[in-house]
């Protein structure tokens, strides 16, 4: 097969990160090809489903800083495409008041002048009905936070990319990557060449990077995405401005829990554990561990008494975890024209627009707009394996 050299850049993987990267490259007049192994849209990776949380509430300043610009980029896309992608609901954070997470999040929000409301045990139920605040827990609301319409966002950014002249080839799996001054990408249907490529393959990142001799310390986990029935329909509804919530140190279960108001399935609220069991992305449905659901049932019985403590719907989604839970946004250590966006560790969706901007800057050899040292490959020194 002869190679097609019609592209400046090839992006591998059309999840949220690859789609926004391709869109940013096309905006910069780069002839861009976005390759996806499955027929789009699909539900085999990490970016499917109707909703995601967007928030500035983070322990680390660097995420809160990036979210400032990221909200603007989401709003720009909404305006450009004439669609609504974000709905403000606020985000409730509850955790032991004197604990590390609560203090770090509160301090980061205050230092960065993000509007928040601090709730006390006395006024809590007046603001947040149908939620039990555990003894010793602090509570605050990140007012800027809300829900992103995830599937709609993906459709929108892909269609804007195509309007800019970008090319999407789905059902085309990349089977080989040959580094060089011009990178050669072989797929199930053809061979392409480009000056640079971006690998945004989600749970399959290491399979792709293996062709370049790199193996990152990533763990793919299967998340049971649970929806719980409201005893009284509407009690936790988005339309009544019930907030999203995170419980970074849950007293009942000792794990990180999060939830979104009922919206996508009428009368059902999404509440999940922010951790799953290790899996192989190609064998996701063969892994059927449900021990997390027992923990969630305990939490729901105690803290969300308006929900039936039995999940009504359970769906699947994948996390790709790094050891420190921070992303990988970097150039390949050996091949500078191969850019990596990986390890989004279950919290990357909201960052899609800014990740796209940063990865496009790296692909074009520009100085990135933010300090990317927290996201470097080099931080894994000692944990990197050669894949050759
Ligand atoms: C249940 C759940 C809840 C979440 N909640 C939130 C939240 O509230 N807020 C938030 O900000 N984030 C959240 N996240 C995290 C967020 O959704 C992910 O970080 C993000 O979707 C990762 O996107 P990605 O593009 O890296 O991966 P993916 O979406 O998996 O995209 C990678 C793509 O690459 C393709 N691909 C792989 N290999 C090849 C190949 N060889 N050839 C061609 N194509 C290939 C795959 O098919 C896939 O489409 C959540 C994730 C899950 C699972
Ligand atoms: O990223 C997010 O906001 C959500 C909620 C907390 C856990 C993971 N995803």
TrEMBL record:
Belongs to the MSOX/MTOX family. PANTHER family: PEROXISOMAL SARCOSINE OXIDASE (PTHR10961). GO terms for cellular component: peroxisome. The keyword Oxidoreductase applies. Residues 8-362 form the FAD dependent oxidoreductase domain. It catalyses: L-pipecolate + O2 = L-1-piperideine-6-carboxylate + H2O2 + H(+); sarcosine + O2 + H2O = formaldehyde + glycine + H2O2. Keywords: FAD, Flavoprotein, Oxidoreductase. This is Peroxisomal sarcosine oxidase. GO terms for molecular function: flavin adenine dinucleotide binding; L-pipecolate oxidase activity; sarcosine oxidase activity. Metabolizes sarcosine, L-pipecolic acid and L-proline. Its cofactor is FAD. It comes from Salarias fasciatus (Jewelled blenny). SUPFAM superfamilies: FAD-linked reductases, C-terminal domain (SSF54373), FAD/NAD(P)-binding domain (SSF51905). Its EC number is 1.5.3.1, 1.5.3.7.
